[in-house]
Amino acid sequence: MSTEQLDTEEAFRPVPEIELDVPDLVDRYTAVWNEPDAERRRAAIAALWSADAAEVVEEHQWHGRAALEERVAEAYRTLIAGDGLTADHAGDVLAHHDLVVFTIRLLDAAGTVTWSARAVLHLGEDGLIRRDYHFTVPTASR
Fold first, then answer.
1. How far apart are the C-alpha atoms of 92 and 141, rounded to whole Å?
2. How far apart are CA 125 and CA 64, in angstroms?
3. What angle is formed at CA 55 by the lines to CA 54 and CA 58, rounded to 5 degrees?
4. What is the mean pLDDT of residues 42-51?
5. Contacts of 79 by beta carbon, 8 Å cutoff, 6+ apart
């Protein structure tokens, strides 16, 4: 979309400041990847992502809650249950207005970080994730 196509009112609408417990959001986000129970995982996904949310990583995109449910379930099956890894975050949470940024990590049983990414969450006015971007970053073990 070119700037000529932008509706002036839309282009200059203030970015909402969202009232929410950001550390809790990040803790819940991290926990969903470790959740073994499919029903609890589905409920957690519904409490985190909007119905039309998307997650975007370097190689893939998932659109809609059903696709996100399958994406998180597959990550659980292969990385958490399969490889014995644990998802957590580095505690480096930054937030303002409708964006939250932090480092999400996968750790092995010894606590070594095997993968990490900067997660950028774009929130809707309801506090649910609308867009979820991961930018993989080098780890000491890579």
1. 19
2. 18
3. 135
4. 98
5. 33, 85, 87, 106
Give pLDDT, residue 2.
44
Least trusted range by pLDDT, from 14-18, 28-32, 41-45, 125-129:
14-18
**Confidence grade of residue 3 (pLDDT, cut at 50, 70, 90):** very low
Residue 121 has pLDDT above 60, yes or no: yes
- The helix (run of H) or strand (run of E) holding residue 73 is helix 65-75
C-alpha 45/C-alpha 75 separation (Å) is 13
- Kindly state the DSSP code that residue 85 receives in the 8-state scheme: -
Closest CA to 42 of 62, 60, 68: 68
15: number of CA atoms within 13 Å, CB side?
A: 6
How many residues are listed for the chain in this entry?
142
Helix, strand, coil % (nearest 5) of the chain?
Answer: 35, 35, 30
Q: Are strands 94-96 and 99-107 parallel, antiparallel or unpaired?
A: antiparallel
Of residues 103 and 13, more confidently modeled: 103
User: Measured on CA atoms in the order 142, 77, 85, 34, is the torsion positive or negative?
Assistant: positive
